[in-house]
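pinning this so it doesn't scroll away 📌
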Amino acid sequence: MRHLLINKFKFSPDSILMLTEEETDPYRIPTKQNMRMALYWLVQGCTAGDSLVFHYSGHGSRQRNYNGDEVDGYDETLCPLDFETQGMIVDDEINATIVRPLPHGVKLHSIIDACHSGTVLDLPFLCRMNRAGQYVWEDHRPRSGLWKGTAGGEAISISGCDDDQTSADTSALSKITSTGAMTFCFIQAIERSAQGTTYGSLLNSMRTTIRNTGNEGGGIGGSGGVVTTVLSMLLTGGSAIGGLRQEPQLTACQPFDVYAKPFTL
């Protein structure tokens, strides 16, 4: 993902913060505190014209929601390296940290490759698309009236699966190490896409690739040794699943025509 951001989208290497399990710097290991600080770092001082990217590939989970702001009754979560002792990072916190503060003119793209990640940014609208590419925007705004959108900026999230699904790994991208299947499909869809490809075309391409990958014997399995980040955090292990039944999802702060809006970071 770092290579894609630098070479395809011309992000400066100095603008990318990576948290990985293999780091020797204790502040660049994906602990709960470090992940929280990295999320704050991402949005700190952002101004109109800035493009922000949050990529995470690793453990995801969910827990019962008790305040009534979730359509399915569950909060989606990310699992830091030390989640068993320090706890998980809940979607409400992610939304409050990197979504709601976004000012006008700032764009945030979140690419989340984790189990139960469909609405992990708690964005108000989910693009429910069928296999024919037809879609409707579902309204996920809390009944309480609490605003989960931005302060005028744009927030869009592409996630590995629906809230009730798990995400797999694949060795199709590298014959040496396993990579999150959604991350692989996202990178492949971007590299194969023509100039000006739309969000709808990108989502359809990812879903097609993820289905085909499961049929090509590319080494699909539950998460293990997954590349994981805030632009690339590493966590290990995961949920074993049978086959690739996951479907990448698109959520946003406002509905839009997914076949008219060009994708760009």
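📌 and the second one:
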Amino acid sequence: MRSPHDCAASDDLRWRIQQEAKELSMAHQGLSSWIGEIQTAKNRDCALSANTKQDSIVRTNGGEVTRPNSSSNESISKPAYNTTCEEERIYGNKCFSEGKYSDAIESYSRCLRYKDALTSAVVYSNRAMAHIKMKNWTHAEDDANSALQIEPKHYKSYQRRCVARLSMGKIRAAMQDAFSAEECILLEIKNESDTCSSKSLSNAQSALDEIRKLRNEAESAFVSAVKRAPRRKVPISIIA
């Protein structure tokens, strides 16, 4: 027969077990609720991130690159997502035509991350022109150099390097570029005269006129530099 002391101890142990079970059940419910709140917040953040990224994607519409949901005062040089080399080039040209030369440079730079851009001198040459518009003469010269390494007969790159070098006072080098540009455009006109349309030939002739005008400017700058150069008397010895 159990003593009253043993009965009291057994009842106390039973009560403590019940209390611990109740506390564990409440803790489990609290943990489940906390996990649910975390998952809900995570899903909400993922949905917000997806919407933000979708608004930032550059899309093409009729061959023209556009940025959706952009306000008029928002920078159009925002980093692009999921774009191709051609889309970045077209967008750079659009920025250039609108006078947004810094944005054009950024777009051309993103375009040059693709291998496709390295098979033609066009992107480097276009970025050189954008640098010229911003008077970044050294960068313009460097980009023209890169373009000519890809296409040694690219007359536009010679023309743009001539402008950059002339602006930096590299007159002899600028004159050489002007002559090279003229030689390349004349060769292009000769090779394509039978296959090109009249419009293409007219554009080539206009380009040739611009190059010759640039060559005249380089020659005039050279003559002026020679006239400004200090003169020194050179002793002459006559040997009998």
